[in-house]
Specification:
Helix content of chain B: 55-70%
Strand order of the largest sheet of chain B: 3-2-4-6-5
Shape of chain B: globular
Order of helices and strands of chain B: EHHHHHHHHHHHHHHHHHHEHEHEHEE
Structural class of chain B: alpha/beta
Largest sheet of chain A: 7 strands, mixed
Distance between the termini of chain B: 91 Å
Number of domains of chain B: 2
Radius of gyration of chain B: 26 Å
Radius of gyration of chain A: 24 Å
Number of helices of chain B: 21
Shape of chain A: globular
Largest interface: A-B, 68 and 45 residues
Largest sheet of chain B: 5 strands, mixed
Strand order of the largest sheet of chain A: 5-4-3-6-10-8-11
Strand content of chain A: 5-15%
Number of helices of chain A: 18
Number of strands of chain A: 13
Helix content of chain A: 40-55%
Oligomer: heterodimer
Strand content of chain B: 5-15%
Amino acid sequence: MTLAPGRGATSRPDTHGFLQYEPNRAFLVTNVVLAVVYTLVISVAFEHGNWFLFGALLATELFHLVQIVGYCWTVWSRDTARPFDPSYAPPVDVFITVCGEPVDIVRETTKAALAMSYPVPFTVYLLNDGLVAGKDDWRDIEELADELGARCLTRVTPGGAKAGNINHALSRTSSPFFVVFDADHVPHHDFLTEVMGYFVDERMGFVQTPQFYANQDQNRVTRVAWDQQTLFFGPIMSGKSRLDSAFMCGTNMAVRRSAIAEAGGMCEFNIAEDFLTSLFMHERGWKSVYVPTVLAEGLAPDDFLNYYKQQFRWTRGSLEVIFKYNPLLRRGLTTAQKLQYLLSASYYLSGSVILLDALLPIVFLLTGETPIVTSTMTLALVFVPYMWINLYVLQRTSNFTYSYQAIAFSLSAWWLQITAMAAVLANRKTSFAVTSKATHDGARPNFLRLVVPQLVYAAVAAVALAVGAAREGASASLMANVAWLAVHLAIAVPFVIAASPSRAPRSAPLLPAPSPAPLSPIRRDRTTAEPTPSVEPALQPVRD
Amino acid sequence: MSTDLLSPAPPAPAEGPRHRTRREPRRVVPRRSGDPLLVAAVHLLCLGLVLVGARVEWLRNSIRLDEAQSLWQTNHSYGDLLRIIAEDVHVPLYHVLLRTWRLVLGPDIGTARTLSLLFLLAAVPVFYLVARKVLSRPWALFALVVFSCSPFLQWYGSEARMYSMLVLVTLVSQYFFLTLITTGRTAAWTGYATTAVVGVYTHYFFAFVLLTQGLYVLLTWRRLPRAAVVRMVGVAAVVGAAYLPWFLWFRANGSASQTRPNLPEPSSVDYSNVYSQFVFGFQSDTINTVLVSAWPLLVLAALASVRAGVRLGRQTAYLVAAAFVPVLLAFVVSHLVTPFFLSRYMIAALPAVLVLLVVFISGLSRPVARGLAGALLAVTVLGTVVQATNPDTPVTEDYRTAAELVEEGARPQDVVVLSSPFTVYPFEYYYDGAARITTLPVWDRQGPAPAYDPARLPEEVASIAEGHQYVYLLLSYDQGYEDEVLQYFERNFEQTAEHSPSPDMRLLVYRVGYSEALPAGELEPAAG
């Protein structure tokens, strides 16, 4: 088996644990029941305070409730049986999308692709976008293809980004099936034999496999990115597959040419092209399946900026789907597919919800206004069990691969999600003033500008605390709201730390960074994925 | 074509990957933490802490109502004792032991309290054994220190009641239970069954411990050793058979229908106060309000407990149930059947709560774990100190001071009135004054305490006051009519003095007769 860059044979990350989820329906039912009870109690049983705040609270709780119910429905069981013929071996083309990645990385991926076992000959294509993207090393990719015996398809006309690159390749190839790998996703030798047999079902449109991050132990960002990944490629995709709603994630996938042709090719007009293309294929009656086996290993975003951009792209793409291609209005989808697409895309609305939740204690401290009037302990009695079962279900369904840091990053992404939504609504492009400056001594670059909103929140919280303490004294309400503030601030800490600079460690890290790391930000975005819950978990994110 | 299972078969536990072992939280391991001498030294330290705490409590604390009742009850012969206990709301084992103890070693309250202290001391090593089931040795030792400093345990380790015995029996039961759910050994089942029988004769609330264990077995039977459910049914049968004689005796003596305490239905505040008192001890309302209002921090704790590769093991899962299910059951039953929700009844859940706290802390990163461990220990010690020194500690019952105050002021022509009636026991323990004692409602102490009848209050007060000059009215242990009694005296008599020996205890002096001049040495008016 080929190891991804930066991995030593003795320190392999676990490639199985996150896929071993077995649903426990008692916990799922309990979770939903407690969520409903909590929402009902909040809505009906307590005296209402400020009506505006109450409305805001109710909206956030309903959002959480929908996400929780959706999550429990998704992971209720997994896709267990699909037609599979191991002897089915139709002609297939292998696409490796390249856009300025270091040649060494592309070399490893290409060699692994060429080494894949398959009963019939296949061709490996390097889809070289380096020229149209203005990358200096685009010629090196052509030379690499010649060296390794692959074919290089270099685009000369830009457009459509990765989707355009794939469509360009489709126009120059002819096999009825193709598989796609990002340049840094190294396939296992058995990828084709484990995947192609599913196409024996004539309506099978595409087969998706997990995106595994081999560099997950490199630093905090890669760890968090992987922890978030486990939830999505563990229970969520398995559950979606059961509902015929598994969607393409951009890499490590096999696609039927006729299906994507019927869908109009890879969608070039949305930043989340894989998500939208999947929707179009499902809309036309094509099936999909998710194979819960790691068959390729790639790289996670290795610094905060790349992670941030990745999240922003997914958020923006997903929200565009909601506002421009609302799944509920698509006629060809089944009800389950409509809801699954909506749940995935709407996850990224949680930024506004999280901000509302975070503002409630500040509003109280500044004004004394509350959404509900009740004993704080009564609220605790209904909220704490609900919260705990929620998190336990999250842990259990991820087979205990999820982490606090992953949750903290997800909850702290509220500003990112709000700005992405604003960009979608205003239909404007967004650029990042910060640049990713690679540090070669192991130090962490300074990305604090990306967490200014979190720092502003902390400052406002401090002011609010002073105002509230002066007005209330050590009342129960003050203590409860101060504790809530502490919770929100503590959640932001890992996010802010990841964005803050650090000096180089004195000794060499246990796991060296994968060789020539810096991928172009746009391309790197494609190599990763993430999920994320909100405090009341509801995790249906869209992946790349 | 074949049908392929998409889900790969889960690997056998012994062969499967150990998830994220590289990221398992690091443990704080003190040097030589595995040294048996160190373990013994920490145990000695903890035993010393318990002894010191008990000494402080004894010096400070007056006899409390429940203690006085236990002393009164165990003054009777064994036969009468069994009858009295059956008429009360308890089971007899502790009182039988206490009577024997007092017959051998002496009748005073100090001797009686020593028995409770012994139970708590015996609980120290058992707690360690239970903690070791889910904690590394250093963390189990740390948990043991917290256990020994626990203000709640310090309190009941120095009270002549059955609660420290309940803790001990619960811990022994939990030790056997945690052993049997992993090994299924017959010895563990034997010990478990024996402890279960002892437990149901120690306190009624031990039934919630057994119920929780039974529920746990029912819900997880597939993961337990074979025949666990069958053996559990067997234990239930043994316990039922062992308990049957007492049940029949209890029914034959009226099912304690006349002596049940008048408790209100528990609220959410009462529920949270149970855990607040478990961790922080008995604190004044001001302090307690601040502490329990910070409950949203539990959300942070819940989030922090989400850790990759960290599973809730079988034994930890049981402790979660042991910490929360008995209290929840008591809360529900108190609402559905009859209120009996008092934090001391739930003390069986306390050890599990402490172990879980340390389990949570031990799983965090090293600096955070160290910081939180220090904070937990500091809070525990501080809680004990404040509980012992703060005059506003709510559960203090200072009948000793009350009796001294009355002795100083009351003369033979005065009368002492105690309400509620059963507070006569602790008051009498100290009182050696000249004035006669009576109660409101009037109680001849031949049967259960009479119910309060507002229509009879004027008549009873008039008969008490007749021929006396001053009434020393001691109000404590409100049974729902304290305020009516107070208001009646306020409306009809002149108050000449007021004292508050402890929270929720008021000593008021009223002039009810005017046949002679004011006595010399009358109590200072309106002193604190």
